[in-house]
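NADH dehydrogenase, pasting as requested.
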Amino acid sequence: MKNLVLLGGGYGNMRMLLRLLPNNFPEDTMITLVDRTPFHSLKTEFYALAAGTSTDREVRVDFPEHPRLQRVFGEITKIDTKEKVVYLNEDREIYYDDLVIGLGCEDNYHGVPGAAEYTYSIQTIAKSRNTFEKLCGLPAGSTVGIIGAGLSGIELASELRESRADLKIKLFDRSNRILRDFPEKLSNYIKSWFDKNNVEVIAESNITKVEEGALHNHDQVIPVDAAVWTAGVQPVKVVREMEDIEKDSKGRPIVNQYFQLMNDENVYVIGDCASSNLPPSAQLAEEQAEYAVKALKAKYKNEPLPEKMPEIKLKGSLGSLGKKQGFALVMDMAVTGRIARLMKSGYLWFYKRQVDL
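Structure tokens follow.
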């Protein structure tokens, strides 16, 4: 039997499974899904888990079952594309004929001293659980610093405000306005929500050092009781350490229009660890998976690949401000308030049912 190995059970590889199962791959092929957890984690909802407004069960979905789908759980330690083998902890090895790498990303601390040691994270479900225990265990009146005012930082700050009205929340933003690349209408709306709900936004910040109980912003030392890092990502270590492949300046493997490695048509890279000029998102991972699965299906049918794949165009962004308000940018149209929040909740409902294979 041939073996199609999918590394990571995130949004990209869940889309791969959605398109391949139950019978859209050859009968002489097994699919092996490798992940550290026995379920698909809804990473876009980890902020709510960390803030204590969603339960662990609400942010995960069971992996599908199929007679020719093997699920393997553990930590990936090395990917050897020359020998076509993936190494796991406990001295396990998985050989592949085709490989899809969808292992996502981890925090990028940009060389800031103390950031890795003294900040919490929402990059994995395990780290989000730890962040929940810390934040929701703080005494009344404690100060929480959230470093990074992208979508993750904004949603975490707003959800934590609803969860813990007694906390002092400081959101550190490097830009002069929140979501600088979004329409000013959305930025103003989000800033207004934070002002009304007593979340302090510190614009044009630059965290130069993190200590236990303190953040250094420029030359100012700001006491905090807990700090969460949401200020940038990088490919996971095992991808950064892959040898003999071309990578971009961020350590992400460079891929062709089918999301294959430039020098290896048997290896596909999708999601946050693939080189792209678009910002990382679940939506992007799913679109990249669509392109990769088309290439795989063509290969299975001995058909030529399309000479030119269309450019990926994302539909927009959805964000929440607590459970009742939100913001959205859909087809260049800005939407705010209750309608935007309902749009995000509706999409989450639809997604959970779509991947319930």
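Note for the archive: The first helix runs from residue 11 to 20.
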